[in-house]
Structures are given as C-alpha cells and as structure tokens.
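Comment thread on ticket #2218

A.B. wrote:
> Attaching the input chain for the structure job we discussed in standup.
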Amino acid sequence: MEKYLVRMECWQVKNFSKIISLISKRKVIQLSAIFFLGLIVVIGCKKKEDGIGLNVQPQGDQLNVNLIDTASIITYSIKEDSLKSDELDGPSMLGTYIDPYFGKMEASIVSQIRLEASVDFTPASGSLDSLVIDSVIMYLALQGSFGNLDPQTFEVYQMDEDIDIDSTYYTNKLMATTGPNLAVSGPITPDPVSVGYVEGLLTEYAILNIPLSINEFGWKMFNESGNTALSGNDGTGEFLDWYKGLVIKANNPMQGVNDGGIFYADMVNDFSKVTIFYRDTSGTTSEHDTLSFDFNFNANCAHYNAVDIDYSNTFVGAQINDSTFGMDVFYLQALGGTKAKIHFPNLTDFIDSGKVVVNKAELILPIQYNSLDNFTPSEYLFLTRVDENGNISFLPDANESGHGGQLDLTTNNYTFNITRYINNIFAGEIQNEDLTLVIGGSGITANRVILNGANSLNKDKPKLVLTYTKY
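C.D. wrote:
> Ran it. Output below, let me know if you need it in another format.
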C-alpha cells in the first residue's frame, strides 16, 4: 500500500503523464471469485449540493452541505486461492471457454451417483448372457449457460477417491480417476434454452444427453449382480463403497479465443441421472421389452465443482503480476477466479480541519460492456471488510434497503451506498482499510466483470461521491 501512496505523491508533485493503457480494447463474454489496481488521484472539486441529503439537515446548516466526487481511490485485483463449491444452493458448472482477457476456464462436476433401488440384473433364466444393453445415457438438466453455445466434447471418468457429503470441497480440488473415458460421443452442442427429452419423453427442462460406454459402464454394473455392491447405497461394501462416483468434464483443446461456454447443470433435478436401457432376450421375441434402470444424481449425493483457470499470457495474468496496470482497468471473475481490493487513502483528510457528517456516500464503479457482448457481467457485486476480529463481514450499510451493488445496464455501472461505513470511519469506530469486491453467487455462476480504472480511456471512471457537512 505504501508504494501506491508514494506514487500518488509523485504524480501530484511532478505532474507525471498517465500510464499508457495496457488494454486497448475489450470484449466481454456471456451467461454468475475479481481483480485489479486502479488509482484515482486528486482531491478537490467542491461544489454546493443541489438537494441531496438536505432534507436531513436543519435549515440553518444547509449552506454548509458540500459534494465532492474526486476523492482518491485505489483499486487492484488479486487471485482467489479457491472457493468452497460443494452442495451449493444452485447449479453446477460444466464446460470450457477462452476469454480474450481472462484466458481459459475449465469447469468440471464431481459427483456421487446412487442406485434408484436395490437391484440384481440377473434375469429369470438365471444367466446374464440373455441380456442385451441397447444404450447408456447420462442426462443432465440444464438451467442456463454463460458464453457461446459452441459444440463441446464431454468426458466422463469413474472416480477413484471417496467423497463425503459432510466434507468440504473447494474449486481447486482435483479428484483422482480410474479407467478409460466413459463418454462415447463426439462433440455435442448443448441447448440450455429448449426443453429436452429423457427416456423418450418431453420434459419441462433443457437436457444435456451424454452417451456412455455400454461395456465400461453398463456391463460393469450388470456384472456386479448378486454382490452386495448393488444391494444398497450407504452400507459397508454397498454401492458407494464400490463405485465412488463420476467426474464429468469437457476437453476442447482446439478452442480459440471467444469460443466455448459454461453450462449450468442442476445436479439435484429428478431428470439428472444415468440410465441403462436393456432387454432380456430369453423367451419369445414378443417378450423382449426394453427395460431401464437409473443411477441418480440427487440431494443425497456429495458433489462439487472443480475449476481450472489459466491466466498465462493474459491481461488478467499481467495485472496479477503487476497491480499498477489497474490504473486502466481491473477485473472480477467468479468460481475462484479473482476479486478486487478498494481503498480510499486520503479519506481522513476530510476531518483534519473539523468534524464531518456524511449525508450520503456512494461508490460508483463503471464497467466495460455492451449488449452485443457474449459474456455478460454479474447481476450483483458485494463489498466486504475484515472486522476487528479478523473475520470477513459485510459493511454496516448492507442490511439497509438501497445499499446497492446491482448492475444497472442503463448507466453501465454498479453503485453502492456506503454512508454508514464512511461515517463510522470518521467517528473512529472502523479503521479505513481495504474493502474487498466480489461477484455475487460466485460459486454458482461463471460471470466475470471488467471495470474501468482511474486512467481508463473511457469517459466514466470509478468515483466516491460524498455529500457531507462540516461543523
């Protein structure tokens, strides 16, 4: 922090030119962890307030009400180590895409599967040899997507580690697997908008169908008939002990910039499951009906998202290594990507010459986005602070209506009302330290946000607008 204050003094004394922008132009991408350093220098530019907050002031004090919108702000982005991602109240992420600023994101689903019931596939004839498996299909109910609806190649592997619903798992947890890829299809173009079919019947949900290997999944299950593995889910030696779960991922090495997307899968939906379709060919041909058996994803399954983000040779990676690039632009990204730090270094200058009451304090953060962009920014952002006990907490304004943080696409910015927070600093009740800016619902959305920095080439820059009274 000291190096940034030194630089600010240098700029004020020597009148340095603005740092040349590293990022000349931006593209964003579509869709719900975050990033960088921008300094807004100069304090001054007082003007009389036209009505804002005057209704709370005595008539005799109104001439002392002032507005300032050039308070210094320091912003910079840092990398999230990881994000808790198990059994969250929302969809799971699946897919890959390459962002022109953020690089490549790969999101995988790790989940148990459970027997729909105790089962023995042995037919009345007494031999599995009379069974024919026609197909094995994984169905995933979809709730939407982020990015482009390009074809993607999905892979499915058997898990080789135990996973427990009472344990905590993070986005950086890589799960060991065993055996070959169980998925047998080529590229699939998911449709997260149109309703889909499950077992030949139209549902009310969009459905992603991934065919699995008849031999590696279907017959592996059938050949356990008569053993305790198929007698139940949770007992010793039963199904979850024997078959620990699945890792579902996408593998798209030929993707280019702006290709791909992340799909939102509902892992507790009744239609999310793996179904084996088979026939018993013993007896007469007329008796060879198609049968099915489900292995379910549901609320009893432990599951989490594993996410890998490669910032190599990207604008975001450059800023993680050198936060001063945040002078032009800074970044936020969900799923354990990045978060931003915000600081007001000269805030206490307002109380050096007397007491101050803040009628209103608004933090305005403009973004880079237009309606043609494929990657939409997050609907909500949140501000947090570290309290005196070292715990992460929301600002005192957060419990009040009108606190803000919601995206306004009319003005292309996020606005936060932080009046109580600023007044608490002036009263000495809270230390003036860094705030943390994060994406709302970071574990259940793939959104990212590009925000203007202090030296942005765009007209709008971040600012703290204070309406205050000195007395």
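A.B. wrote:
> Thanks. Noting for the ticket: The helical segments are 2-14, 214-222, 239-242, 315-321, 419-426.
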